[in-house]
Structure formats: C-alpha cells, structure tokens
Amino acid sequence: MGAPAQPITGTSVASRDAFGEAIVRLGETHKELVVLDADLSESTRSKKFSQKYPERFFQMGIAESNMVSVAAGLALSGHVPFCCSFGAFLTGRFDQIRMSVCYSAASVRLVGSHCGVGIGEDGYSQMGLEDIALMRTLPTMAVIQPADDLETAGAVEYLLGHKGPAYLRTTRQKLDRVNNPDGYKFQFGKGVTVVDGTDLTIVASGGTVGPAVNAAKQLAGEGVKARVINIHTIKPIDVDLLVKAARETKRILTVEDHQTTGGLGGAVCEALADKEPVRIYRHGLHDVFGESGTPKGLYEHFKLDAAGIASVAKEFLAK
Amino acid sequence: MLDNATLETLRRRSYDLRIDNLTAITAGESGHPGGTLSAMDIMQTLFFVEMSHRPKEPHWPDRDRFVLSKGHAVPALYTVLAHAGYFSRDLLPTLRHLGSPLQGHPANFLLPSMEASTGSLGQGFSIAIGMALGVRLDGRKSRVYAMIGDGESEEGQIWEAAMSAPKYKLDNLCVILDHNKGQIDGYVKDVMDIEPIADKWRAFNWNVLTIDGHDYQQIADAFAKARDTKGKPTFIIAETVKGKGVSFMENKIGWHGVAPTKEQLAQAVAELQKAQAALSSKGAA
Q: Are A74 and B134 in contact (CB under 8 A)?
C-alpha cells in the first residue's frame, strides 16, 4: 500500500523561532508565564518576550546553575517558568535539574535550543547531543522535541498547563513543516504516523523528521515502503504506536540528531524490549563528538539527510 | 525588642528542641547533630517570632517562606515545625525510616511544610531567590528566608546567587549563614577557607549583619533590621557553635554526621535538662 507522504507545505521555521513567537503570543493572556535566560536570549529567541514583558523576564547572566534553581523557586511560588539556554549548557546543570526542579516537584519548563549537529559551525561545545539521554533518566521529567513550527507552538501551549517538569528541545536550523496546519492539535505523549508503510518503520524526532519523510519518498521510488513515525514526545513515549509499528513492519530504524545511547533510539528500544522485540537499528551519533561544518554538510556527513537516512535504511533491510 | 517572658519561653524551649532533635537522630541511627544544634536557635526564632505562617495551612499563599539550603540540618527544622504545630512530635522518631515523610534531607512533595527539596548544597539559596522574585511579582508582602552553611559557601552556585539577588534588589530576601566553622572533613578554614566572609558579601552589595547565633535578642533584632532594609537583600552571619548545648559535641568535627548512641543520648539529655532546670531557677530568682 504505502500511502503517499503527506505534503511538506513549504513552510520552514526553526523551532527556536516558533518557540520565541509562541511565548510572546501566550504571554499576553497567561500572566503566570515567566521567562529566564542566561545571556543567550538572542539565540534562544526569548528576546522578544523580554522586550514585550520586561517585568516577567529574568536575565540571569552566564550562571546557569543559579538560573535553573531560581526557575524552580518561581515555579514553587505559582509561576510557569520557561528557562532557556543552549541544550548543552542547560542539561549540563544536571544536579540542579535533578534536585531543584524534579525532586522539588517544580514545574519548570527547560528550553534547550541549539540541539544537535544541525547548529553547524559552532561545533561540539555548543551542540546539545546528550541532553535527551540525561533528561530522560530523571523521574517526573517529560521530554518533548517538536518537528516543526506547528508542533512547537502546540507544545508550548500544552506546557502552560502540564503538571511537572519538562524539557523542550529546539533547533537552530529551519525545519520543514511536516504537519498539516488544518485543525492541527498537539497531543502530548502521542506519536504521529507521518507516512504509512509496511517494509520498515523509521522513527524520527525533531530535526530528523523532515529528512525521514523525504527519505521515505526516495525509498518509495526504489520499491521500499517505509513508514515514518514522528515522536515529538520522547518521554512518556507512545508505546502502543511503536508496538503496532513493530508488529506490522517488523523492523524499526530510529533516526536522531543526538547520541544513539540513551536518546530516541534508547527510548524506542526500552519501549519495545519487553513488548514486541524486533530488529531495531539506532541511527545517529555513535559515541562520537560533533564537529564544525555547515548544517547541511554535517547532516550529510552523519547521514542524517534524506539520502543518508535512505542509505542506512537500505543497509539495515539488507542485513 | 523581645520582652522577658518571650525570651524566657524561647530559651526554655531551646532545650526541649535540642532533646527532641537528638532523640530523633538517635532513633534514625544517622544524621547530623553538629549542624542541627548550631542552627536550632535561629530556626526557633524564625518560626516562633519572626515569620508569618500558618501551621494548619502550610501552603497559605501569603506566608513567609523558609528554605533550608543546608539540607542536612533538617532534623532541627522538623523539630521546630513539630513544636510549632505543623505535625505531631510523635513523627520525629520516624526520621530517616522507610516510608517516613521525614527524609534524611528535605523532600517537599512528601512533607508540605518543606518549601523545597534540598541536600545538594548551594541550591536552596537560589530557589529562595526564585521565590522572592515570585512573591514580589504577585504583589505579596511575603518575606523569604534561607539558611546556608559555611562549608556550603564553598559551592560556586552560592556566588552566582550572591550576584543575582542584589541585581533584583530583593529586600524581601534574608539569608542566614550558620557560621559554625566546621564541615565533614575538618574545620572550614582548613578545608577551604571562606574568610573574610563579611567582606565578600558586602562586596556583593548585600546588607551584612553579624550576630551571635545563639542569642535570641540578637537574632530577632537582626531579622527586624533586615525587614527595615530597603533596596537590597540582607545577609546575616550568625556566629554559632557546632554541637551547641551538649558539652561533648561542641566544636567537635566528629559530630558533624554521626548519630549518638543511646548512652550518649542519655548523657546529652541529662545535660540539657540540667541546664534547662538551672534556667528555671534563675528565672524564678
């Protein structure tokens, strides 16, 4: 069968930009929404919020540990803080997130931008590449990685009311829209089947969803019917959808701009291990550092672009 | 100024608190006698004199808040809260037992009167800053108190926090240093000297006060001065004695994190009761 891929509409927006727009829009009516940043408001896109609502924006300087714990205090006094920095720097404050946020039951929304090799030239030090793995281990922490502007806006709006801490992973690079804007609604914890198929399932998240959809198109041309599932909520993950895909397609290929240890691939393996153990190949960064380069060049190098994903899929199917 | 009757009550209760605290630590078979006894008089003053709070409504939105950043001193806080009416004193000996809300270090989701979960040093202070910003944003008159340790002052996050509170002119924030001069591995001056501590906090633009942390009048006066200080947060250096009140524990590093035996507890209780009785006869005279 292999239903055709949903059309990518041509809209392309970085999820950090969609985040920045969403907090400005929602801040108008949601007075409980406060934002903190650590000297990266230009890059995380919290700057517009800081200009429009200066009394609800806290510039904490280059001191992320203090910022995370201050955000916890704001949450514990009834506010809804979005705490922003690069994903690498934010999740680097693991102890503060573990203790001040999670163990203190503080509903802080940690927003880590500049995730993955997709940031390009700045290189490994600025790339969030272990952040999903770190955040996933923490009790009560939710992990969301939107694939396009619609999902990002939907996730931010959802997070206003979410009980408990959450990590929102955003990108510097533009993301092709993969959702249909007509009546779009973000459903926390629900995976989205973007392309139907029966030969294997490609499970992608965030920046790799667009390339995975294009890879599926390329594979279709070669007679391979690949299903594509977009997992925007990595924790809690949509176990039912994954089990269904495992039963129906027998093979799962996970694709992520993150270490293959503990990230999306890890989450999918854990979800299926005792429910529907099938062949899974985890594609992403295999225990290596990212490096400087153009975003496009890096996606090619790490085979995260459509051609790369298609080639990895074919190799996997041949095994 | 505290009146004589109040002072008398505080002093008398200070012995009961110390006895209950050490009894709980002994029952828990682990805990921190030294740093609970040094902090006890400050905590009693907070909950019995200074703070506006409701024991039967721990989440009252307009309450003043106290964050124990040096989380290992929590048996002292549990004891003060029990005496203040938050929960029964019978709960105290469940300290550190499986299933008890009285965790070895504070867990706010298990015990509503804990404002935050602490125990990884350096963080409670920052959480208190967030609360001070939060209540001010809501236009509440609430004040926020935090207690840090002198060993804790070696944490980098303390100085990130020290920089940030004056930036936001948090005059609703008061931080108390339990300056008992000891930590697990030895005296603070040997492990990692933090002096000159008052100069450091003044340089960070805080209103700095130094007091005897076992003198109820001085403690209460300092809190009053903090309330009257506008435009900047207050930092109270409370000179304290680790293990205060029990002769064989005072200023002994070894009593940082070891529970007394039953025999040692009996000896400590006898000493404290004797001192309390002496206070009564003096008071009556």
A: yes
Kindly determine whether residue A34 and residue B137, on different chains, have CB atoms separated by under 8 Å: yes
In this structure, which topology does domain B4-284 adopt according to CATH?
A: Rossmann fold (3.40.50)
pLDDT tens digits along A224-260: 999 999 999 999 999 999 999 999 999 999 999 999 9
Please check whether residue B99 touches A, CB under 8 A.
no
H or E segment at A229?
strand A226-230
**Residue among B115, B116, B160 whose CB faces A63 most closely:** B160
State both tokens at A150.
Answer: 């619609």
Helix (H, G, I), strand (E, B) or coil at B276: helix
pTM: 0.97
How far are the Cα atoms of A23, A162, A232 from residue A158, in angstroms, in the given order?
Answer: 12, 6, 13
For A122-180, how does the pLDDT look when each residue is reduced to its tens digit (9 = 90+)?
999 999 999 999 999 999 999 999 999 999 999 999 999 999 999 999 999 999 999 99
Beta carbons of A99 and B123 less than 8 Å apart = yes
Q: What pLDDT is stored for residue B1 in this prediction? A: 86
| β-bridge pairing A233-235 and A142-144 | antiparallel
- Cα-Cα-Cα-Cα dihedral of B245, B251, B257, B261, to 10°? -50
Place of tokens 């940043």: A37
Alpha-carbon gap: A169 to the closest alpha carbon of chain B (Å): 23
User: Which of A56, A70, A103 faces B130 most closely, judged by CB atoms?
Assistant: A70
3-state SS, residue A46:
coil
* Percent of chain A that is helix, strand, coil (3-state, to 5): 45, 20, 35
B40 membership: H or E segment, kind and range: helix B33-45
Domain spans of chain B, in order of start: 4-284
Q: What is the SS3 assignment for A230?
A: strand
